[in-house]
Amino acid sequence: YCPEGTPVMAVEDGVVVLRQDFTGEKAGSPWWHDTEALLIEGESGVVVYGEIAAVLKMGDRVQAGQEVGKIVQVLKEDKGRPMSMLHLELHVHGTRDTYEWKDSRPSSLHDPTMFLQMAVPCGS
Questions:
Q1: Does residue 59 register a pLDDT over 80?
Q2: Which residues contact 20 (CB under 8 A, 6 or more apart)?
Q3: Helix (H, G, I), strand (E, B), or coil: what is residue 117?
Q4: Is-contact 50 20, C-beta < 8 A?
Q5: Contacts (Cβ under 8 Å, ≥6 apart) of 104
Q6: 89 C-beta neighbours (distance < 10 Å), count
Q7: φ and ψ at 115, to 5 degrees?
Q8: Distance between CA 115 and CA 56 in Å, rounded?
Q9: Which residue has the higher pLDDT, 53 or 111?
Q10: Residues 85-102: what's their mean pLDDT?
Q11: Per-residue model confidence (pLDDT) at position 97
């Protein structure tokens, strides 16, 4: 969870391979506000930055730490918790799609634990 308007920064260098509607009417989920997702392919795989207002387009080169978008409010109904958040996923190289998954996780989805353990803390 994070405040609406929070800048979203790239976790690694890469190239934008897809910009798409992620939630809301255009994405087939009218119970949420309209948000976008960027898929950026880099060394670790394809990172999905969802529930944002993207500032990049297909083919743009991205550097780690560069702003890729801003957080937008996704929830339409206040359920007593934050109404805006970053949806972050890591998929295998070559992934070019995102979809809502409820029962089984996509085979392209990585467990990010190893990458998070290797990350350098902010300010280091």
A1: yes
A2: 27, 36, 37, 39, 98
A3: helix
A4: no
A5: none
A6: 21
A7: -70, -40
A8: 24
A9: 53
A10: 86
A11: 83
